[in-house]
Amino acid sequence: MLFLRSLLFNTLFWIDTFVLSTLILLVRPFGLSYSYFFGRSWSRLNMLLLRLICGISYRVEIKGKLPEGPAVFLSKHESAWETVAFPSFMPPYMWVLKRELFHIPIFGWALVALGHIGIDREQGIKSMKAINDAGGKILQSGYSMVIFPEGTRTAPGEMGEFNPGGASLAVRAGVPIVPVTHNAGRLWGKRGFAKEPGLITVVIDEPIPTEGLPPSQRKELNQRVKEIIEQRLKEIGG
Questions:
Q1: Mean pLDDT, consecutive 10-residue segments, the chain of 238 residues?
Q2: Contact in structure between 36 and 92 (CB atoms under 8 Å)
Q3: Is residue 21 part of a domain?
C-alpha cells in the first residue's frame, strides 16, 4: 500500500508540475506576481496531495516574529519536501538552486522565469559572488532568499558543512538571517521513492539582525545559525 500511495502521489505530482509550470511561463509577461501565484498554488496543491494520499502533514512553529521586510532564510536540507512545501507558508522568496535544474524542460524553464538563482557548486568563489550579486538584487526588490548552507541533502540527524555564502549575502544586504529547521527526511528520504505517513515539524527561529555588521562577521554568524539548527534538530527529532 505504501508503494501504491507513493506511486500515485509521484504521478500526480509530475502532472501538476507540468501544468502549473506551463501556466507560470504563460503569465510571466504580465508580471512576476502572477507567476508567483501559480508557483505557490503548485506548492499548496502538492501539500494537499501529500496529506490526502500519503498521510504526510506538517506544522510550523514560529519563534518570535517574522521580519516585515526581506530576509535570508538559512534552512536545513534533508529532503525534497522542503523545496515543495516552503512556498506554501513562507514569505515570498527566491531559491539558490543547482544550475542543472534549469535544464529540465518546462519545470526548469519556470524556475528561470520566476527568477531563482542557479549556481555551479564546484565553482566556489564564483558561486558565492553570483549569490551576492543576484541575491542582493532580489532582496532589494522586496523578495526574501532561501538558501541551504549545506549545499546538498543530508540524512536525518546529520549535519553537513555550512557554507557561509548565505550569511555573507545577509550581511552585505543588511537584512536579517532566519534559521529554519525541519525533520522531513524521516518521512521523505533524500533519494526515497516511498513517503512514510506522519507529521513533519518546521521551526522558524527568531531573526538574527545583521545591519551594520562588517563582512568579517559572516563566519561567526554562519556558525551561530548552524548551532541553532543543531539544537532544534535534537528537540524535534530530526
A1: 93 97 98 97 98 98 92 95 96 91 94 90 66 90 95 85 91 96 92 90 97 90 96 90
A2: yes
A3: no
C-alpha cell at 117: 538563482
Helix axes 107-114, 2-27, angle to 10 degrees: 50
- Taking a C-beta distance cutoff of 8 angstroms, is the pair 75, 162 a contact? no
| pLDDT at 143 (0 to 100) | 96
Which domain range does residue 137 map to? 57-236
SS (HEC) of 104-164: CCCHHHHHHHHCCEEECHHHCHHHHHHHHHHHHHHHHCCCEEEECCCCCCCCCCCCCCCCC
Whole-number Cα distances in Å, 6 to 49, 140, 188: 11, 40, 10
202 Rama class: left (phi>0) / alpha (psi -120 to 50) / beta: beta
Q: Is residue 39 part of a domain?
A: no
Q: How far is residue 85 CA from its own chain's centroid?
A: 8
Q: Please write the tens of the pLDDT for every residue from 63-89.
A: 988 999 999 999 999 999 999 999 999
CATH number at residue 148: 3.40.1130.10
The predicted model scores a pTM of 0.94
* pLDDT at residue 85 in the model: 97
**Number of structural domains the chain divides into:** 1
Whether 33 is covered by a domain: the verdict is no
Q: Give me the pLDDT at residue 229, please.
A: 96
The CA distance from 55 to 196, in Å, is: 8
**What are the φ/ψ torsions at residue 70 (nearest 5 degrees)?**
-65, 150
